[in-house]
Amino acid sequence: MKRQLSRRLADGLGVFSISLGTVQLAAPGALNRLIGARDDPRTRALQRWAGGARELTAGVGLESRRKPAAWLWTRVAGDALDLGMLAALRDRARDTGARRRATVATAAVAGVAVADVVAAVMTSRDGDRAPVEATGRITVNRPVAEVYAAWRELENLPRVLSHLESVRPLGEGRTRWRARGPAGVDVEWDAEITSEEACEHLEWRSVGEAAVRNSGRVEFRPAPGGRGTEIRVHLSFDPPAGKLGAAVAKLFGAEPNQQIRDDLRRLKQTLEIGEVVRSV
What top-level branch of life does the organism fall under (predicted)? Predict the structure, then answer.
């Protein structure tokens, strides 16, 4: 739960950073007037390059989800610079209106700084581990209702998804998933369906103290030209640290997207011809 919270917070700060950086680059004069700063070529340049470029770079870095802790600490350092600049601006303000605007801007930046520090600390504790993502799509020459029904029987998924060994119903909408990793390492977790629309989509996620936090979504759409059903899949596994995490990551091999595409081809063969065609 904490890992998911830190990731969502980092993602939100990434969007905020990109938005603010874009405004600073596109309308530095308006921002200068908003915070009570003198609007001249020098302060506009500072808004663009000392502020906007920095925010945009940090935002893009956070959205990439690569080394989020480093980008968040970059934002914290930038917040400190901004707070110092605003304090000086407030002290030098020549009228009450400019001083008031600088004070409001300082409070806003301080609030963002708190969020940046919290996110940076939480993400640093998580160790900057990146989730294993796998996406794929395929067209199956069978009706949507039939394809959906086949996938909805979650117990059948191990026949298609090669990283799974078994999916066992527990009742009340929950299932127990089991995967066998390298060197005989077994990984188990409980999951529940979080969203479902018959013949349209199905979503699930791990619950409780899962050894492997994960989630998935599969969509079913009529294929163009009456060619059956288009399946779109997105899986996300969040491996823990240490040897267990390394084993889980290896479940997907070097290229998880390729593996999910191979899995989908097995599903296509199973539904269209009743068996998986194996090359000799």
Answer: Bacteria
Clarify whether residues 107 and 138 are in a common domain. no
At residue 203, φ and ψ (nearest 5 deg) are -130, 145
Contact 133, 256 (CB under 8 A): yes
Range of the domain at 30: 2-126
Alpha-helical regions (H) of the chain: 2-26, 28-35, 41-45, 53-64, 68-92, 96-126, 144-152, 242-250, 256-273
Domain end: 77, 102, 126, which one? 126
Work out how many domains the chain is built from and give that number.
2
226: its two tokens: 């009456």
200 φ/ψ sector (left φ>0, alpha ψ -120 to 50, else beta): alpha
Same domain, 142 and 264: yes
- 109 and 89 both lie in a single domain: yes
Ramachandran sector of residue 65 (left: φ over 0; alpha: ψ -120 to 50; beta: rest): left
| pTM, full prediction | 0.52
